[in-house]
Amino acid sequence: MLAMFKPVELFIGLRYTRAKRRNHFISFISLASMLGIAIGVWALIVVLSVVNGFQKEVRDRMLGMSSHITVQDFGADLRDYHPIIDALSQHSRVIGAAPYINGEGMVTMNQEVQGVMVRGIVPNMEPQVSDVSRKMVKGSYESLEPGAFRVLIGIEMAHSLSVDVGDKLTLVTPNAMVGPAGILPRMKRFTVGGVFEVGMHEYDSSLMFMHIEDAARLYRMGDSVSGIRLKVDDVYAAPGLTKGLSELLDNEYWVSDWSYRHANYFRALKIEKMMLFIILSLIVAVAAFNIVSTLVMVVTDKQSDIAILRTLGLSPRGVMGVFIVQGTINGLIGTIVGAVTGVITALNIDTWVPALEQAMGIDFLPSSVYYISELPSDLHWNEVGYVTLVAFILSVLSTLYPAWRGSRTQPAEALRYE
């Protein structure tokens, strides 16, 4: 009755899939191929989700201290920046804007010397574009006052210089001054007003914040600033907004986004992710090759069945369809099982891994070594679709040769010794 509603190839292929085989070795190979595809799909989804999680975690930490978009003058300091901020703030996608001054110098404390990046900020505007006010572990963000000459330093810089809140350190800038003794570097004593921890070595070890007025006085910038930092409502939309913001300013200023400043890093992550996808896809390819082996043995085992079907009028194309259906079902089951298992694992990895660490007494990512001590996961459904599609296509392709070989069976030859 079922054959009346479905093509005969589909009916027979499904029947072969459900039927118990006389040859248990064929059943074992068939099960191994399905299990191999499931493991490959599961591994691909989980690994890609973990890579996405690490990439998101690093990007969030990086952009927590860096701006989404930066506006600078071409080869000069930015003067009369207040009208520029007012104009940019009118854009519907801009949710924060703040001026800044960038500088370099060396910090000395006792016998310790370390190079630093200095950033002058406006304390009441900076929280609009960065997270430094929320990353304080010691001291106070509000200690940055004009003329107080206080600084905020990263926790690693505090450890390397052996300083704490309230200690004084000397900042040496490359802006030289001429005196009776000749050319001397500019030096200024600052008080540590607070210590922050971002979780990135680049910032925690070499970044120093001070009030923008103190930075302007230190670097002799007057009323000028290095540029304006912007925060937009969608960080991924920042690359597409730079052109519009530049046109809003009549193309008089250089507008760049976070992907431009960190292009090499994110390009390396993208290449790494692509290579992981290709390498792990080989697991699926090997499992799909097992489908070839299974179907070749099934074709050999079913020679008499094929001959009978041919004598009953089934065309060679129909025979080919029978084995394509059978192999595709095996691949489809493995793909679905792997996809479901992978999605469940990726969505719960942040709770399962700590439980596994506790059970085994092992810390996979010790906080003393790694900045990111937890295993993050960020599941992208489009990638789940790509992985399952690739696995399914490989499964279908692996059925073609055995199915073609079965369609070449000659009834007379197959039934000669029956």
Protein model, in words:
The protein has 418 residues and is an alpha+beta fold. It is built from 14 helices and ten strands. The chain has helices spanning 8-18, 24-65, 82-89, 155-161, 201-204, 212-218, 238-248, 258-261, 263-301, 303-311, 316-360, 381-398, 400-407, 411-414; strands spanning 69-72, 94-109, 112-121, 136-139, 150-154, 168-179, 182-196, 207-211, 227-232, 254-257. The protein has a six-stranded mixed beta barrel. Helix 9 (263-301) crosses helix 11 (316-360) and helix 9 (263-301) runs parallel beside helix 12. The longest helix is centred in the last third of the chain and has 45 residues, at 316-360. The chain starts with 7 loop residues before the first helix and ends with a helix.
Short description:
With 418 residues, the protein is α+β, with helices and mostly antiparallel strands. The protein has helices at residues 8-18, 24-65, 82-89, 155-161, 201-204, 212-218, 238-248, 258-261, 263-301, 303-311, 316-360, 381-398, 400-407, 411-414; strands spanning 69-72, 94-109, 112-121, 136-139, 150-154, 168-179, 182-196, 207-211, 227-232, 254-257. Helix 11 (316-360) packs antiparallel against helix 13.
